[in-house]
């Protein structure tokens, strides 16, 4: 199967689908990643923006993103060369949020800590990512350059709640500013 799966081709296919009045296409830009040695692909496109994360809102977003997937499949069949016979075989088990809530920690990881690969005395983990800026749901993330190809420390204080004793956070909930996150 010869397919053009570049972000530009995906964007053009979605634009054509929108002009043809295919609904529920929330983003024009995204990725289609082909699995090596296979005809399987993973699509990173459907998007929703949470506001408060009540159980009702989460349920609505789960349903909405699954609906979006079906419309993207239709758009790809019609407008993305080589995807005319594509089939949906799997959807992620649950919606994934990049960012929702974080604790206010005893310390906070800041953009400059990540960019300058800051090391600290109370480091309990290491981070090695480049900051991603997600300003618009219809645009690709912008990646910021870092000082060097190295790592930075994640301090214990970024995991410890500033005002609730013995409460620690992990993963997406640690104390970090929007850019460092």
TrEMBL record:
Native species: Dorea longicatena
Pfam families in UniProt: FAD_oxidored
Protein name: FAD-dependent oxidoreductase
